[in-house]
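Ops channel
N.P.: pipeline sanity check, posting one input/output pair.
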């Protein structure tokens, strides 16, 4: 550690001795003196892990609409004001986007009490009700896969805890769960075949569908179990090793129409299911308190550092602020929110001059469909009108899955649209930034290639024509604004932490977090000080099928 620190200080001194020489080819001016100030502030005086402890340990989890996310927003506003940012606020949404109820889990006790006692580790599904006090009942395994098979359970579920399926087969982890991209993997990513043009937009309230007729059986099954008088429902996943994934019902679902739903570890689920299969009755008791909040505050956290001669033009940094609730939301996406907050602190503390205004946006509601960023874009930059309803009897229009759909009609742009310079997003965990997904904005490639050069020693080397979906840069891209997500080392994101009960502070990589903050700050600085705004793709063009497509 000491030797690496001295090496960094020596490199900083060498670059500083060049007297801020303007370097770079093809018109991209890189002031290494300023970049060096950003690096020194972010690597030697970092506050990012302090910020992360507040976002996770103190204010996590940050479920959208919960008291915790409101407190986290208030803390973030206070902290950024302390750093000297201006126009810092929790900006209210103009449209609630279906978040009619907030929710929190305030008490969780679940245990087997017969044939022997053991605690059951789990988390209630968001926006589902609690037990209204201590309740006890026998567990049953429920395996109906269609409406015809429901008849076998008629009259058998009253006062029972329902396990939704047989015990899963949990495989061993034959490879290490943590991973960094190899040079070969990054090369393959860079040489990927360009996808067809697409402007991503996820419809409010969800991540888009796959088209075709909806599967109604899950709702029929849920209604049946509720009507039969069950106490609640247990689910799990074959991942095992004490790791489980959590999610939520729709925020505007009437709690009177659903049962308590609890996700538990595969190991406890399997033990209960196997005993039942051997005709050994298992009795479970639970006391779960979940609280609902009508019309909770819906907001985005924003703040900025004012520019100079181009102050009316905006560069944005952002990431989603919300998390699921089985852990404290460290890698998804406290890591992105914290790195972007630290990037703003670095820009302010380093004293570098910015021609354009740099603004941060921290977005709740991402986990339910990019809601916070989509609402911000609709309020400030442009609206994608919803498609017309299908004719009577027609099948619903197909969605685009994780990428969303385009506009069915011409975009309704606002004056701020013309002043927008670019948006950079972090939302793939704690791993080090390794490059940028170009999002088919080919004109940005030579710019980013030069910008990455000062960070080659940090592993920032790769541009790919691949798109990446499912996060907030799509809200900007959908209305023709330049937005990008960074490539990141996966570390344990997909294997251990994404939406799981392990997504806590301990899973963060401090050195990666510091580097990510420095790179994000530098990209914002470089975008803010270009003579021109960042290049844009052709605007999405509506078509008769209701899907946006890239212009020619």
């Amino acid at each position: 550690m000491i030797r690496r620190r001295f090496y960094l200080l020596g490199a900083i001194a060498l670059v500083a001795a060049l007297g801020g020489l303007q370097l770079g080819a093809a018109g991209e001016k890189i002031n290494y003196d300023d970049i060096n100030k950003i690096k020194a502030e972010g690597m030697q005086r970092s506050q990012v892990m302090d910020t992360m402890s507040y976002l996770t340990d103190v204010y996590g989890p940050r479920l959208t609409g919960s008291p915790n996310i409101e407190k986290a927003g208030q803390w973030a506003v206070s902290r950024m004001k302390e750093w000297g940012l201006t126009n810092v606020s929790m900006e209210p949404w103009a449209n609630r986007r279906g978040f009619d109820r907030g929710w929190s889990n305030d008490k969780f006790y679940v245990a087997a009490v017969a044939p022997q006692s053991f605690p059951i580790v789990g988390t209630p599904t968001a926006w589902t009700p609690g037990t209204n006090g201590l309740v006890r009942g026998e567990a049953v395994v429920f395996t109906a896969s269609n409406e015809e098979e429901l008849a076998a359970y008629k009259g058998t579920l009253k006062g029972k805890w329902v396990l939704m399926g047989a015990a899963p087969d949990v495989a061993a982890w034959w490879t290490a769960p943590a991973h960094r991209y190899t040079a070969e993997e990054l090369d393959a990513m860079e040489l990927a075949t360009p996808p067809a043009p697409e402007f991503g937009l996820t419809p409010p309230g969800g991540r888009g569908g796959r088209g075709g007729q909806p599967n109604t059986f899950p709702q029929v099954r849920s209604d049946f179990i509720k009507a039969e008088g069950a106490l609640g429902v247990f689910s799990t996943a074959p991942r095992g090793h004490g790791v489980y994934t959590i999610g939520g019902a729709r925020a505007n679902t009437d709690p009177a129409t659903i049962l308590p739903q609890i996700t538990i570890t595969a190991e406890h689920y399997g033990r209960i299911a196997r005993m039942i299969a051997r005709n050994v009755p298992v009795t479970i008791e639970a006391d779960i308190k979940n609280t609902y909040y009508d019309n909770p505050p819906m907001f985005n956290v924003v703040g900025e550092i004012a520019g100079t001669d181009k102050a009316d033009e905006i560069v944005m940094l952002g990431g989603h602020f919300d998390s699921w609730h089985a852990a404290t939301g460290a890698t998804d996406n406290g890591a992105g929110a914290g790195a972007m907050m630290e990037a703003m602190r670095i820009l302010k503390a380093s004293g570098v001059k910015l021609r354009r205004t740099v603004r941060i946006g921290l977005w709740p509601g991402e986990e339910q469909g990019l809601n916070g960023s989509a609402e911000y874009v609709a309020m400030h930059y442009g609206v994608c009108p919803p498609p017309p309803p299908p004719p009577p009897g027609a099948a619903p229009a197909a969605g685009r899955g994780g990428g969303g759909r385009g506009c069915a009609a011409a975009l309704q742009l606002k004056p701020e649209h013309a002043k927008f310079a670019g948006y950079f997003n972090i939302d793939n965990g704690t791993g080090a930034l390794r490059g940028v997904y170009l999002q088919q904005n080919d004109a940005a490639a030579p710019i980013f290639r030069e910008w990455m050069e000062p960070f080659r020693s940090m592993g920032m080397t790769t541009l790919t024509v691949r798109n990446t979906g499912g996060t907030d840069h799509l809200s900007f891209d959908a209305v023709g604004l330049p937005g990008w997500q960074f490539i990141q080392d996966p570390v344990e994101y997909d294997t251990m932490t994404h939406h799981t009960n392990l997504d806590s502070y301990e899973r963060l990589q401090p050195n990666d977090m510091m580097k990510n903050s420095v790179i994000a700050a530098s990209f914002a600085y470089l975008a803010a000080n270009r003579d021109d705004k960042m290049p844009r793709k052709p605007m999405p063009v509506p078509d008769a099928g209701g899907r946006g497509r890239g212009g020619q």
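N.P.: looks fine end to end. The longest strand covers residues 101-114.
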